[in-house]
Structure formats: structure tokens, C-alpha cells
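[step 3/7] fold_predict: job queued, chain A
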Amino acid sequence: MILSIAKVLFLAFFDICRLVKRPQDIPESRNLLTLCAIVYGLLSIWLASLSQPIESAIVVGTVELVLIMVFTLAVLQASGKSSRWTQTVTALVGTGIIISILAFPIYILLGVGELNEVELSTFQNIGLLLLAALSCWNIAIMAHILRHALEINFAIALFLAITYIWIIFSFTSAIVPMETN
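[step 4/7] structure written:
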């Protein structure tokens, strides 16, 4: 029973990743939001820990999750659609889980933490291309979710998604500066 529920949810989130379903197609459930947020937060910490100390990774993962929630609330309130917050954040973190799972093997291929070498291997070059493609897909997914949640055109939603990424990067790099050798 639990596996079938997990499969249905995974497929729903994957359909959002494929830009087929909308955030309103996800059940409005605080319990589902909490579960997805915890899993997303843990995956964010795990991925960040591949390239930085665990203490920094915990801060980065936590800040990222909080900013998703705050940014989403801000844009929804600004457009008078704050009642859509639960489903929108659930869709963002649910699809974020899928993107994080897909990013893990790419991080391994890249040898994250070992990219300080002047010459990258062929596998690392392929990994960088895959990571760039995954990042673009993630931005498109976020824009798709915001487009439907806010009832705006895709170009504005894309701008908001890129702004969100910039805010996340700015906050996390200000709190936990990247190490340079």
C-alpha cells in the first residue's frame, strides 16, 4: 500500500517534471508537504556534503529549503494567491527530489570536490554538460510550476525561476562562502 502511494506520488511529480501536470494536480496536504520538504532538505544536505564540510552542507540545505518556502509565499501573496502555497511548495520540493536524485550520479561522474584541476577529464566534461542540462530543466520545471500557480505567462515565470535561483545562490554563498584553493 505504501509503495503504491509512493509510486503514484513519484509519477505525479515526474509528470510535473515533464511539464505535463500542474501543481494543482498534487493533493493539498500539509503532511505531504512536510514529508517532501524533509526528504528534499536531506537530499540537499547530502548533495552539498559531497563538496563541502557537513556543517556547511546542513546550513546550505536548510537555507535553501527555507528560501523556497519564503520566496513562494512572497510571490503568491503579491499576486493574491497565497491559498496555493501548500500545493506550490509541495510541487517545487517534490520535483526537486527527482532532480536531486538525477544530480547525484552526475556529481559522482564530475568527481565533485576534485574540479580544481586545470584539465578536466572527458567524463568530467560530459558531467558538466549533463549538469548544465539538468539545471536548465530544473529552471523550466520551476517556471512551469510558478506559471500555473500564479496564472502568468511562461516568460515571467521563467524570470521568477531564475531570480529564485539567484537568490538561493546569493544567500547560500554569503552565509557559506565557497572555498577557493
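[step 5/7] annotate
Residues 8 and 14 are 10 Å apart (CA to CA).
The radius of gyration is 17 Å.
exit 0
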